[in-house]
Amino acid sequence: MKEILFFEGNYETITLPKNSSKAKVFYLTLHKLFESRGYSCKNINTNSKEQLRESISSETYYLVGHSQGATRILEQFSFESYPQVKGIILFDPQQYVEEKWNSLDIRKILFVNTQEKWHNYSNFQVKQEIDDDHYFTKSLNEIIPRLEDFIE
Asked: Number of structural domains, the chain?
């Protein structure tokens, strides 16, 4: 079965209690979208030691990452090593992976929140700036159609 490899952020261990429900809504909504498009979702918790090379399979078509999970993907991904990957979907990676993001020659989409301003995303290419917080819960209705168009 076609697979989406989903590197989550740290919400299980460091999210403030007030944000826990936002994180769950965000991840559940994305999982439902991917499953409705015929993909299984394999989740990788950011705190695990599992590396991209240990997780990716010949059935992995898309990589999705949020926060630290997005950063981990950019630190470890190369198209040459994983030619079966059709695209990368990221939410709020750390700023230091900007050069890697900009140099990727693959279908990609990046969503960055404009409310919390933890990082300066001004030099990131191919990005969607969203007026929302880190869990994009107020803007999922805006994000989902973009992802539907992005995923084959």
From this structure: 1
